[in-house]
Amino acid sequence: MAKRTASAAQVALPLDAEASAPLLQPTAPAKPDADGADVASEASLQRYDWAAVGSELNRQGWGLLPGLLDAAQCQQMAAMYGEAAHFRSRIQMQRHAFGRGEYQYFAYPLPALLQALRTALYARLQPVAEQWRAQLAAAAPPWPAQHAALLAQCHAAGQRRPTPLLLRYGAGDYNCLHQDLYGALVFPLQVIVLLSQPGEDFDGGELVLTEQRPRMQSRVQVLPLQRGDAAIIAVRERPVRGTRGSYRVQHRHGVSTVLRGQRHTLGIVFHDAE
Ligand SMILES: O=C(O)CCC(=O)C(=O)O
Ligand SMILES: [Fe+2]
Known about the structure:
seven-stranded antiparallel beta sheet; 30% strand; binds 2-oxoglutaric acid; Oxoglu/Fe-dep_dioxygenase_dom
């Protein structure tokens, strides 16, 4: 059973109750344009200053990749929402008290662009995850350099379901504060790509990240996304250096109410789900 933890209580909810499609392993034959997508994804990531992204993640728990996808890629990705063959399950948020609106989990094999992005982004974020591990729990096993190796670990631990998802919000929809955990093995960073243009396609619907320091009230950060921008966020917690070593700051994310129009996002979680 996959888990997404809500803000009020740490309850496990049957996200995958509607799962139906058989699960394929990520080693299933890649789609024909996979090689091109790999090369293009790696090239598109080269233009970012990853040291600066790492500093932002350390400082605030989130970082931005402006223009990760172009307008055509955003449109193609959002249009997949209507193509049932891409997905293993559909979740209506209201039925689980997750918010209002819906999302679908991709099935394996992932669309080539998504597969390539997930692999290439992981390789860029693994050093940050390693730094966080060293700061917080040096005894935990290292994060592997390659995403395929992380998936092998997930699958051996019973986390076999793909977690990348497409979300669709209309007027009045929102996404409650939560953490995308899905099992014991939790890679500490995830990526959210906004596929619609604020002020044109929709109003409202801002991605927010909360931060809770020990013995302090929560702080909210609104992430300034335009269509095609990606936010990298801490999944559950990040280390902050204090006077006596590092301590854990807890994070949750959610989306404020969409006031008008339609908003699509692509969510890339790196661990798979139970
Ligand atoms: O729609 C959003 O901006 C948030 C999506 C989300 O919660 C996720 O991808 O994990
Ligand atoms: Fe999420």
